[in-house]
């Protein structure tokens, strides 16, 4: 048996550009035959209101709003995991983080001013995977591979040429983890990407193990 997982999607509750409330997002992915999703809401300057910048706890409470609604849907038939799409101050590059937990978010310093060298080190030391998202989107620059565990080689919002260039670059730098994600913000983005595995993913540890193993196939439904 095979299982499909979305590993790049956004919710209306947290990502300002998201149009689907998390409960609707989960419903749509269940209807599309997926066995789970990783919520990778934007952790970026655009995510937080001004008061959040003066209280890390308020900022993280805000960031976890969709996750706390979604937790109730995490069961044997459908997994809901917490992830992140991270963008630092005054930059346009985005990075996908897998393996993040609520506890880590509260314990770590506010990530936005740390930039890639420090943030990547802190997160990877805690067992997270740190990937560059859609590396050939307009204005984005490719990060130094030494700070990365992998590359998103297919993105549902990217055009075919950008995705081909991402795959080519991932091969050139010989990155160990290559992923696909729908980058879903609205209903039309449901099911464009993700991974297919022969094993169920129930926890962050399962996800990290599968991604590191390479034992998965990529879903690539180019629009």
Q: Which secondary structure elements does this structure contain, and how are they paired or packed?
A:
Elements: E1 3-9, H1 22-31, E2 36-39, E3 42-43, H2 56-63, H3 65-70, E4 79-86, E5 95-98, H4 102-107, H5 115-125, E6 129-132, E7 150-155, H6 160-172, E8 177-181, E9 193-197, H7 204-213, E10 217-220
Parallel strand pairs: 1-2, 2-4, 3-4, 6-7, 7-8
Antiparallel strand pairs: 1-9, 4-5, 5-6, 9-10
Summarize the structure.
With 223 residues, the protein is α/β, with parallel strands linked by helices.
Amount of helix: 25-40%
The general outline is globular
Largest sheet, strands/sense/barrel: 10 strands, mixed
Number of helices: 7
Q: Briefly note the CATH topology name.
A: TIM Barrel
Q: Give the percentage of residues in beta strands.
A: 15-25%
Q: What's the architecture, going by CATH? A: Alpha-Beta Barrel
CATH structural class: Alpha Beta
Q: Say which CATH homologous superfamily is assigned.
A: Metal-dependent hydrolases
* Distance linking N and C termini: 27 Å
Low-confidence stretches: none
Order of helices and strands: EHEEHHEEHHEEHEEHE
What is the alpha-carbon Rg in Å?
A: 16 Å
- Mean pLDDT, to the nearest integer, reads 96
What is the strand tally?
10
Number of domains: 1
């Amino acid at each position: 048996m095979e299982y499909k997982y979305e590993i790049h999607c956004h919710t209306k509750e947290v990502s300002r550009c998201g149009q689907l409330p998390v409960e609707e997002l989960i419903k749509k992915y269940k209807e599309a035959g997926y066995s789970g999703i990783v919520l990778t809401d934007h952790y970026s300057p655009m995510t937080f209101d001004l008061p959040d910048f003066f209280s890390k706890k308020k900022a993280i409470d805000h960031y976890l709003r969709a996750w706390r609604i979604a937790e109730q849907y995490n069961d044997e038939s459908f997994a809901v995991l917490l992830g992140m799409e991270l963008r630092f101050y005054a930059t346009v590059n985005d990075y996908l983080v897998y393996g993040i937990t609520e506890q880590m978010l509260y314990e770590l310093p506010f990530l936005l001013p740390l930039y890639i060298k420090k943030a990547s080190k802190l997160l990877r030391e805690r067992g997270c995977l740190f990937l560059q998202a859609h590396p050939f989107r307009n204005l984005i620059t490719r990060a130094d591979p030494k700070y990365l565990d992998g590359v998103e080689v297919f993105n549902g919002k990217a055009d075919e040429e950008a995705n081909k260039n991402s795959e080519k670059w991932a091969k050139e730098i010989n990155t160990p983890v290559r992923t696909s994600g729908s980058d879903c913000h609205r209903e039309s983005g449901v099911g464009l990407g993700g991974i297919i595995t022969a094993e169920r993913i129930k926890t962050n540890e399962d996800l990290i193990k599968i991604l590191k193993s390479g034992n998965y196939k990529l879903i690539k439904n180019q629009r």
